[in-house]
Design brief:
Layout (H helix, E strand, L loop, with lengths): L1 H6 L5 H4 L1 H17 L11 E3 L6 E3 H17 L4 E4 H6 L13 E8 L1 H5 L6 E8 L2 E9 L4 E6 L3 E4 L2 E2 L11 E5 L7 H12 L3 E5 L3 H9 L5 E4 L4 H13 L3 E3 L16 E4 L2 H12 L4
Parallel strand pairs: 3-4, 10-11, 10-12
Antiparallel strand pairs: 1-2, 4-5, 5-6, 6-7, 7-8, 8-9, 12-14, 13-14
Enzyme class: hydrolase
Organism: Streptomyces formicae
Protein name: inositol-phosphate phosphatase
């Protein structure tokens, strides 16, 4: 059912028109609910969820509601697992393990950047079923960049096919890792090997979705994250995979959007880089 939705009568998702319909829904939600509030937020429109760094705004909530309505209308019988809906009712997350097609939505990935008037935020949408990622949309509205990935059919940025490529031999690896403001003391310790490794330049991440996009376009070599919320990772993991990269959890397995992953994990622009970063995190790379 879901695959037919993506491929239509042509059998080719890039020609079926469905990807464009979802893209239009994402763009409309951003245009209606996010961009009018960019650099226009009032103080009462910003709320702390779990501390001063974990913010939610009226734009997050309104955009998720907009996307929930438009995406489920495109695919009857589908459900939405959105960041704000799960915050209100954690049981919503269980839909990832159910039989219905699931839209995984992060309405504003990089809310802190959005609140501070920084253009480094995006809207993330992924379509999955039975825990398998099928397609994803990464949209940076201020930058007007749209990356779309389809399992088994590659990825495109603004219509142009993408390949992540490999780092130049001997080059310093550029790695974005979980921001210290969002990590526990134990998680900080888990990521220390990246900061102390020769030949690696590790820095705190910004919007996870845009960091994944940077890996997929070959501007960043890898990411390393210590949390597993599906809305932060689903779109980007498929994007990296479809541009030639891969991901590894601490046990060497691929990341599961349904949860239960060994943390931290990495996603990188090629298999060799992923293996090396994984080895650093696991204490096996020298």
């Amino acid at each position: 059912m879901t695959e037919e939705f993506l491929s239509g009568t042509t059998g080719n998702p890039w020609e079926s028109g469905t990807l464009a319909l979802v893209e239009e829904a994402v763009r409309k939600a951003a245009a209606a609910e996010i961009m009018p509030r960019f650099r226009q937020l009032a103080a009462h429109e910003i709320v702390e969820k779990n501390g001063p760094h974990d913010l939610v705004t009226v734009a997050d909530r309104s955009a998720e509601e907009h996307l929930t309505a438009s995406l489920t209308a495109l695919l009857p019988g589908s459900v939405v697992v959105g960041e704000e809906a799960v915050h209100a009712d954690p049981s919503v997350y269980e839909a990832l393990r159910g039989d219905a097609p699931v839209w995984i939505v992060d309405p504003v990935d990089g809310t802190r950047q959005f609140v501070h008037g920084d253009p480094g935020f995006c809207t993330l949408v992924a379509l999955a079923r039975h825990g398998e990622l099928l397609a994803s949309w990464t949209y940076a509205p201020v930058l007007d960049e749209m990356a779309i990935a389809v399992r088994g059919h590659g990825a495109r940025l603004d219509g142009v096919p993408m390949r992540a490529g490999s780092p130049a031999p001997g080059a310093v690896l550029e790695v974005a890792m979980s921001h210290p403001d969002f990590t526990s003391d134990e998680e900080k310790q888990d990521l220390l090997p990246l900061q102390h490794a020769d030949g690696v330049h590790a820095r705190p991440c910004g919007s996870a979705g845009l960091e994944y996009l940077a890996v997929a376009r070959g501007d960043l070599d890898a990411v390393a994250f210590s949390w597993e919320n599906a809305w932060d990772h689903a779109a980007g993991l498929l994007l990296v995979s479809e541009t030639g990269g891969t991901d590894l959890t601490l046990t060497g397995e691929r990341f599961r959007i349904t949860g239960g992953n060994a943390m931290p994990f990495t996603a990188a622009r090629d298999a060799a880089t992923a293996a090396y970063v994984h080895g650093l995190l696991a204490g096996t790379s020298r």
